[in-house]
Amino acid sequence: MTHTSRLEHCFAALKQQNRPALVSYLTAGDPDAETSRRLLHGLPKAGVDIIELGMPFSDPMADGPAIQKAALRALNNGQTQAKTLEMVRRFREEDSTTPIVLMGYYNPIYCYGVERFLTDAAKAGVDGLIVVDLPPEHDEELCQPAAQHNIDFIRLATPTTDAKRLPKVLANASGFIYYVSVAGVTGGSAPTPERLEGAVAGLREHTELPIAVGFGIRTAEQAATIGRFSDAVVVGSALVDCIENANTPDEAVERVHGLVSELAESVRACREVNEPQVC
Amino acid sequence: MNQPVDVSKSLPDANGLFGSFGGRFVAETLMPLILELQDEYTIAKNDPEFQRQLAYFQGDYVGRPSPLYFAERLTEYFGGASIYLKREELNHTGAHKINNCIGQVLLAKQMGKKRIIAETGAGMHGVATATVAARFGLPCVIYMGATDIERQQPNVFRMKLLGAEVIPVTSGTGTLKDAMNEALRDWVTNVDDTFYIIGTVAGPHPYPAMVRDFQAVIGHETRAQMLEKKGRLPDSLVACIGGGSNAMGMFHPFLDDLDVKMIGVEAGGKGVKSGLHAASLNGGTPGVLHGNRTYLLQNEDGQIIDAHSISAGLDYPGIGPEHAWLHEQGRVEYVSATDDEALEAFQVCCRQEGIIPALETAHALAEVAKRAPGLPREHLMVVNLSGRGDKDMMSVAHHLGEKFGVKQL
Ligand SMILES: Cc1ncc(COP(=O)(O)O)c(C=O)c1O
């Protein structure tokens, strides 16, 4: 296919501006459907470039406590795969440019039915998928069918992905590469920037795709440091914690969009120090 | 006798699939570890020195072979088939679980791993893991659901005595599936030095095949023992099913003997129709969890539903992928026994044979109670007596204490 995707547009535009993308993660339906909708719709204005929307799963074994609890809040309030797709569809009525990537585990997609899911996701305006428990060994399950629907399959590379394995990981990747900064679950320890920079540089030798870095990034300062050498920084658990710590839905929205604004400001400025001064 | 075809050579395939079941549905961080484990296991499987060590520990440490015992009184009580008990409860630590743990800890040693983790439900796998970790001088962390810690106190104490750290898991419902999630989270965080000893024939490839192979000693012995005693193979095999390791260990060496009928007994809880059960094959649908595709208890949106069973070791919403495949092939018949039926069979076994079985095992005995009376005495029925019931005293006292004038233990 030769059409230009929303993700390609987004990364091309940001390259022009010489800044990394800010990618936010929130779980769909957290803490409830209506608040989640308000959170989602306000993200682009607050400065998010790419939206990752979590599909809640009862057994998120690659997630730490923050996102585990978010999934439970959403599920307890009745979130379903169909409702998550409906959220995307309504978002697309207002915003036709901000890429949305659905993130989660395979089972809810498998039970929805892969073809039906991809058809509905494409119709709703989903741009990409990150499915944690589908390594390249299982590409025929979802990755290859997704390509038929022009939905990118975003691959995770990790500190354990060695040189021997990397080609396999990159083979059917599209959209961007998500570098998992630490071996562990989401919301864990912060990565060390020096090691990360080397890892990202190493990846670049093997792929033209943009490289996002995520896991353990919580603050504007961390985002800025990592954004100097990566094409995108992903912040998830820190945003989800804002929901957990809020006393009311209004406060949740305010806190999440507040933190997003801070992060957005910092990724916009992070490469300026290295810029030649143009007067 | 024809040599049986070695089914283990044909399945799973190179991708760890049994038909459409099994596979390696794990996070990328774990993939290199799982591939390494697969390579190392393949080497160990064909390494005479590894096999020699395994046989040594199975013999002198675990106490194998376990007897195949003719349960004369139980046979008379039910008045039908001749009932034989494969006495896995006599193994060191009191269940079949250690057969697998010895194998995996030897592999961990071979791979130079420095730390052992495991999940446990009833605590039998946790105790067996803590035991082999102590024997090989490795630090050990056991994840156990908070609910299970409550109902299996004696095993929690045993694990601690053996030097293991027992971490209560409160996420989800605080049972076996949550303990497994937490163990996987530990593994993905401690990728360099940690070996994860999965306790049943589930998880990503190569675990289902590897655990099966280590447990297959049960079936191999049973075959030889029955041939020696009766000069022929048994007519039927009965085993309880949590994840399915004691059943698979018993069944696998007989898969090609089509005259040997096999019956797996799932935990029916309050009845499969009630929704409160742990019968994944009888009351579940295919899905993907804990690294493999198999039958799961789940809602139509793919969210996992909590299992229910009086027995913590069967309280799991999935089942090993090879069982899912054997179910669809029709090679093994899968039935269920309720909490009440298991409690009843539990008491019969205590009274008739002087053997206190694990509540898990009592589910297999409950099926014997239904099936044996209608069969002739020539029918040779082997029950895998997977474990002893000492750990269950608190639970049983809770349900039956009144009857024995015991309020609480
Ligand atoms: C005595 C006993 N039997 C059976 C089981 C069930 O496990 P599996 O189905 O893997 O044999 C357990 C699990 O804890 C057990 O302790």
UniProtKB/TrEMBL annotation, chain B:
Signal peptide: none annotated. The modification N6-(pyridoxal phosphate)lysine is found at residue 97. Its cofactor is pyridoxal 5'-phosphate. It holds the Pfam family PALP. Tetramer of two alpha and two beta chains. The beta subunit is responsible for the synthesis of L-tryptophan from indole and L-serine. This is Tryptophan synthase beta chain. It comes from Vreelandella titanicae. The gene is trpB.
